[in-house]
From TrEMBL:
Pathway membership: Amino-acid biosynthesis; L-serine biosynthesis; L-serine from 3-phospho-D-glycerate: step 3/3
Keywords, in A-Z order: Amino-acid biosynthesis, Hydrolase, Magnesium, Metal-binding, Serine biosynthesis
Cofactor field: Mg(2+)
Superkingdom as given in the UniProt entry: Bacteria
Name this polypeptide is given: Phosphoserine phosphatase
Recorded family membership: Belongs to the HAD-like hydrolase superfamily. SerB family.
Organism of provenance: Methylobacillus rhizosphaerae
Name of one Pfam family that matches: HAD
Catalytic activity: O-phospho-D-serine + H2O = D-serine + phosphate; O-phospho-L-serine + H2O = L-serine + phosphate
Any single GO BP term: L-serine biosynthetic process
Length: 291
């Protein structure tokens, strides 16, 4: 196992204190793998005092399985809203109707796992009935932004021949756009029913819920001939838990507490480029060391 620490900034003083709090001996050194990202090999645990210090200092810390590297992974499956992009698309659509607070409250409740996702989606979409479909394009043009670090993460996946899959409980109108923007291999999402240029307040076909996300992951994994251990799943809400459980490891990205508790690793302070460092193999930076 290797310890990976990263933050928006990490000072040498912080790094030195972290080293003192680990079980590492004086001869074991941190290896710098990014501007503010370091790894320490041959670790077995994160001492409680170290966890508390990193939490206080807003530093992400993970104890990563040595098998979980970019060289070993073959498939990365990602949520879209508040993961690959900065917004919740349905909340922004609702804002066009002056209904954002009502819809956002249902979104939050579903992400915390308080309401079944399919039920929450039906309730939210029903509120959009009668909205002009042009509002969808407005959301793309005015509000849809990639999460910082998304391009760096996908570039690293491509460099290591890792297939990329977006699986979203959101809508294909946006998922297809994000797929094109990032050059992803596959995108799966729900389809809003549109009649005469207006949203009907209904979703077409089966809803992409937590189980569907896991099923899409599993089908694509088998199609690629990969083992479960070669798959990473990244998400932020309760709807991502089954997908993450179906993967060899799951990463909670700026996620709800229920997701962080069940994920293999959690990133709360860095952006999506943190995934690159989380899975950087030790040998890639073996020459750069520091105390």
């Amino acid at each position: 196992m290797r310890l990976v620490i990263q933050g928006s900034t990490i000072s040498f003083q912080q790094l030195g204190h972290i080293h003192q709090l680990t079980s590492a001996n004086h001869h074991q050194q941190f290896i710098q793998i990014g501007e503010h990202a370091y790894t320490l090999p041959n670790q077995q645990e994160i001492p409680r005092e170290l966890l508390a210090f990193c939490l206080e200092q807003q530093i992400d810390i993970s104890l990563v399985d040595d098998n979980h590297t970019l060289r070993h992974l073959g498939l990365a499956v990602m949520d879209m809203d508040s993961t690959l992009i900065t917004i919740e698309c349905i909340d922004e659509i609702a804002d066009m109707q002056g209904l954002k607070p009502q819809v956002a409250a249902i979104t939050e409740s579903a992400m915390r796992g308080e309401i079944e996702f399919a039920e929450s989606l039906r309730r939210r979409v029903a509120l959009l009935q009668g909205l002009d479909a042009s509002a969808l394009q407005r959301v793309i043009e005015e509000r849809l932004r990639l999460t910082p670090g998304a391009e760096a993460w996908i570039a690293a996946c491509k460099q290591h021949n890792i297939k990329t899959m977006l699986v979203s409980g959101g809508f294909d109108f946006f998922a297809d756009r994000v797929k094109a923007m990032l050059g992803l291999d596959v995108a799966k999402a729900n389809t809003l029913e549109i009649v005469d240029g207006k949203l009907t307040g209904r979703v077409l076909g089966d809803i992409v819920d937590a189980q569907a996300k896991a099923d899409y992951l599993e089908r694509y994994r088998q199609e690629l001939g990969l083992s479960q251990d070669q798959v990473v799943a990244i998400g932020d809400g309760a709807n991502d838990l089954k997908m993450m459980a179906a993967a060899g490891c799951g990463v909670a990205y700026h996620a709800k507490p229920v997701v962080q508790q069940q994920a293999s690793y959690a990133l709360n302070h860095v952006d999506l480029e943190g995934l690159v460092y989380l899975f950087t193999p030790l040998s890639a930076h073996s020459s750069s060391t520091c105390h």
